Amino acid sequence: MSDRSMQTNVQAYHEVVVKALIEAKQKEVKAEKKLIQAGICFIFVLIIGCGYLFYQLTVHGVGSSFLSFLLSDIYILSWLAALFITYKLFEAKSKKFEKAENDFDELKEDIIDRSSDIWHTAQLEEIRMHQYHDLKTKHDINLYHK
Predict the structure, then answer these.
(1) HEC states along the chain?
(2) Which spans are transmembrane here (predicted)?
């Protein structure tokens, strides 16, 4: 295989790796946004429900049993169900974010570890440094160190 075709293969491989890295970063950012939205939704439901519970306790009092107080109000039962659902949603989004973050970090570390094998000539080294700079400025991906 000639040097020219080998450089073309290396550059093509590099472009595929960079594209996969950018997609993994975008997936991580998207998962982080969804996690924040789920957290805000959970906190909103929690605050609204606590406010309603406090209002009911101050206006009507507990009565003989706190449990019967909770079970007798359909809004409190609905709030508890909504609280449970939003918590489970937050938990699922948290797991998705952790997976996306781990996938991105593994890909990034793999690229950093194998960079000397991929870019083995001085010309390819210049291309690599230019690409690293572009990734850092455009996509906030730092490949200079782990």
Answers:
(1) CCHHHHHHHHHHHHHHHHHHHHHHHHHHHHHHHHHHHHHHHHHHHHHHHHHHHHHHHHHHCCCCCHHHHHHHCHHHHHHHHHHHHHHHHHHHHHHHHHHHHHHHHHHHHHHHHHHHHHCCCHHHHHHHHHHHHHHHHHHCCCCCCC
(2) 35-55, 67-90
